[in-house]
Design brief:
The complex is a heterodimer of chains A (282) and B (241). Chain A has 282 residues and is of the alpha+beta class. Chain A is built from eight helices and twelve strands. In chain B, strand 7 and strand 8 form a beta hairpin. Classes of the chains: A alpha+beta (282), B mainly beta (241). Strand 9 of chain A pairs parallel with strand 12 of chain B.
Chain lengths: 282, 241
């Protein structure tokens, strides 16, 4: 399987500063996205700190397995998932301490959604209301739960999903990095299949663009960076009320498989037949 | 100004306006609305404005406070609501001028929060409780957690039943599928079940699954007791106590 990825972050149409932050570490196939909060420029500080800490801890862990794991980490998880969870715990501690130490940074916090791909194994770590989705067989599957008050109310059956979308309390989070000295981190592992498309996004996308539109855009645009740009443009077209950040990750069939010569052969034949070189495996 | 009218057998016994101060309701005569009935606690409940909304709060009364026949610990009141305490009824009249404009429906009355904020553990618990008191659908109130489970009715799989604990459950022949199908010519990834906030949705994989005999048109929310057919197996989706 080959992985192609791209990401875009945009300030949106209403806000004056971008508190979102993301990083793609291609050699590790590590993808990290964070949405900061807190007055002045402190949201930017928090999200940058979150992305920086998570990336650094994962890189260090990959270099040297002896780097200790931080915080409460489930023993049953894979090494990558454990490291990712550890990194998010560490980021929480760093942001919390920074906020405690600097009076003007009090109340700053950040969401964090990170994906680490190792072969066909996907590890996801998540805190807050950014999201990870998987587009597979034409269906967009949400891989994370929003840690927002309204989502919690939906899970408890107090309000419906439709009421949650209308709610004015959408920005109230029940979990975020930097709010408390300890944080509960959601960690899950999944198996990836060829042609899966994974996206990480901040709430600036999901509050503006519907899921069918997200799925449609991902299916129509095969270049990951362009797909991310199109989704950001769509969020802005619909008002761009918040910063919007999108990372698109596509899992494509590897070309080094034993049957690749066969596919190439059929493809060139199809092309010479004037059928536009359509994909055999599409 | 909002007004409370104490009624007994459809006759108004007493009326009080609601202003800045909480209105005490109970058997003790020093309440703003004294209710002379043995079923009523001395200090039974109170009504007050909070954040522009009129709220009733039960004060740990023995026999409870009911709003429109629903027992509440705390609830937001609307014009025309009835509070029942013992055999008495208190009619809520909120058509007049409230101290803060609020007469625009439940949602608009909620504080508008643009900046993202985080609740601490206590605030979160309080807010959820408050929301539960206001909400109409409180299946969660029982507090017993139910485990969503797939039970294999027919067909070859690696287990007889599966608890759905992940956000995404894959049904297929793949060695990494949660529900592993056995046998020749089975699809690698026959179907998938996504856990969302409002329930479990089954979606197509390499095949289109059927729920209760009909092929699904797209991602479909599963109900307790649904029967799923895909890849030559039949699965029963239930919420296990």
């Amino acid at each position: 399987m080959q992985i192609a990825s791209g990401g875009v972050s945009d300030v949106g149409r209403v806000r004056t500063n971008n508190e979102d932050c993301f990083r793609i570490v291609a050699p590790l196939q590590l993808f990290v996205l964070s949405d900061g909060m807190g007055g002045e420029a402190h949201g930017e500080v928090a999200s940058a700190m979150a992305v920086e800490t998570v990336t650094k801890h994962c890189l260090e862990g990959r270099e040297n397995h002896a780097v200790p794991l931080f915080g409460e980490v489930q023993a049953s998880l894979s090494d990558e998932a454990k490291r990712l969870a550890s990194a998010v715990h560490l980021a929480n501690k760093r942001i919390f301490e920074a906020a405690e130490g600097h009076l003007e940074q009090r109340g700053m916090g950040a969401t964090l959604t990170a994906a680490w791909i190792d072969g066909t194994k996907l590890s996801i770590a998540h805190v807050g209301d950014s999201r990870a989705y998987l587009l597979r067989s034409g269906t967009l599957q949400q891989l994370t739960s929003d840690h927002s008050l309204v989502a919690e109310q939906v899970r408890r059956g107090i309000i419906t999903a439709a009421e949650a979308e209308e709610s004015q309390m959408q920005s109230v989070l029940i979990r975020a990095l930097g709010a408390q000295p300890e944080v509960e981190v959601d960690v899950e592992e999944h198996t990836l299949f060829v042609r899966d498309i994974l996206i990480l996004c901040s709430d600036g996308l999901t509050r503006m663009v519907t899921e069918p539109e997200i799925a449609g855009t991902l299916q129509a645009e095969t270049n990951p960076t362009k797909a991310a740009e199109k989704l950001v443009a769509l969020a802005n077209e619909y008002g761009g009320a918040d910063n919007v950040t999108v990372i698109v990750i596509r899992l494509e069939p590897g070309s080094r498989k034993w049957f690749s010569w066969l596919r190439r052969g059929v493809r060139s034949k199809a092309a010479s037949n004037g059928s536009g070189g359509g994909k055999l495996d599409g | 100004m909002a007004k409370l009218s104490l009624m007994f057998e459809n006759k108004i016994v007493k009326e009080v306006p609601v202003g800045g101060r909480p209105i005490g309701i109970g058997r003790s005569p020093d309440n703003d609305l004294p209710v002379d009935n043995l079923a009523v606690s001395n200090y039974h409940a109170r009504v007050y404005f909070e954040g522009g909304r009129l709220v009733v709060e039960d004060l740990d009364s023995l026999n409870g406070t009911f709003v429109n026949d629903l027992r509440v610990e705390r609830a937001t009141l609307h014009d025309g609501d009835s509070i029942h305490i013992g055999k008495h009824r208190i009619k809520v009249d909120a058509t007049g001028d409230a101290p803060v404009p609020w007469d625009t429906g439940r949602k608009a009355a909620a504080p508008r929060i643009n900046e993202t904020m985080v609740l601490d553990t206590k605030a979160r618990r309080d807010m959820l409780q408050q929301a539960a008191a206001m909400g109409e659908r409180t299946q969660f109130a029982g507090g017993r957690l139910k485990v969503p489970t797939l039970i294999v009715l027919n067909g070859k799989t690696d287990q007889k039943e599966y608890a759905l604990t992940n956000k995404l459950t894959v049904i297929g022949k793949s060695t990494m599928a949660t529900v592993r199908l056995k046998g020749w010519f089975k699809p690698q990834m026959a179907a998938q079940i996504n856990q969302r906030d409002d329930g479990f949705y089954i979606g197509p994989g390499d095949q289109v699954p059927a729920v209760n005999g009909s092929p699904i048109p797209g991602p479909t929310r599963l109900k307790d007791g649904d029967v799923i057919e895909v890849g030559g197996v039949r699965l029963n989706f239930i919420f296990r106590e």
